[in-house]
């Protein structure tokens, strides 16, 4: 990956870690024990999201989705503008977004869960 892509990903991860920590603090009403619980639950939720995206993107449900596509009655219209201007195909864009969501959700979830364990020492 290019350096600018890594910088974007790291900045998004940092921003989302701060946002989730602040949201869990506000949700807990400033009480330390409730803040730890909220961060742990948000972290677990994000880890589940990252795992789900990883499993779905890995093709685990490929047969199921192919069966649903064959059952579809109304076909999608093609407009000719589905490929991006930089030459990236729809599949490449979909794969890139799945990798991005998985890495960001996994990292933020892992950091939130780790911070909840570190905050336990303050009880």
Description:
The protein has 123 residues and is mostly helical. 75% of the residues lie in helices and 0% in strands. It is built from 4 helices and no strands. The chain has helices spanning 3-28, 32-57, 62-71, 90-119. The chain is globular and about 55 Å long. The mean pLDDT is 81. Residues 36-117 form the DUF3899 domain. Keywords: Membrane, Transmembrane, Transmembrane helix. It holds the Pfam family DUF3899.
Quick description:
This is DUF3899 domain-containing protein. This protein is 75% helix and 0% strand.
Note poorly predicted spans: none
How far the N terminus sits from the C terminus, by CA atoms, comes to 42 Å
Structural class category: mainly alpha
Alpha carbon gyration radius: 19 Å
Strand tally is: 0
Shape: globular
Run of helices and strands: HHHH
Number of H/I helices: 4
Q: In percent, how helical is the residue content? A: over 70%
Domain DUF3899: 36-117
InterPro entries: DUF3899
Protein name: DUF3899 domain-containing protein
Keywords: Membrane, Transmembrane, Transmembrane helix
How does the SSE layout of this entry go?
Layout: H1 3-28, H2 32-57, H3 62-71, H4 90-119
Helix pairs in contact: 1-2, 1-4, 2-4
Entry keywords:
membrane, DUF3899, mainly alpha, single chain, transmembrane
